[in-house]
Amino acid sequence: MIAENTQTQMRKGILEYCVLLVISRGEIYASDIIAELKRAKLLVVEGTLYPLLTRLKNNGLLSYNWVESTSGPPRKYYVLTPEGRQILSQLDTTWNELVYAITTSQQAKPTTEEK
């Protein structure tokens, strides 16, 4: 139970970063974002993604374009704004620092007190 709660919190904590990473590759439709995240084993539903996309847009990190669809109504395609790219760069740095901290912690030798 404790592990599940921690795993859930870890996934929630990196969701925004992962969404920005997916969108950084180019203009993308929301259902394609969900598919990309599912492929990466980060299970996300529309009810989670759409509020996150709205928040990112309202914070100036995303914009969107309406694109006509041959199979229904127009679709909203998301792209990063220059500010979104800047924030993503900062998050990349933080992620790399976290990976380093975890890797270093795993490799650390026990101190005299821990033996």
Automatic annotation (TrEMBL):
A matching Pfam family: PadR
Bilayer-crossing regions: none
SUPFAM superfamilies per record: Winged helix' DNA-binding domain (SSF46785)
Superkingdom classification of source: Bacteria
Residue intervals of the Transcription regulator PadR N-terminal domain: 19-89
InterPro entries referenced in this protein's UniProt entry, alphabetically: Metal_resp_DNA-bind_regulator, Tscrpt_reg_PadR_N, WH-like_DNA-bd_sf, WH_DNA-bd_sf
Protein known as: PadR family transcriptional regulator
Lineage: Bacteria, Pseudomonadati, Bacteroidota, Sphingobacteriia, Sphingobacteriales
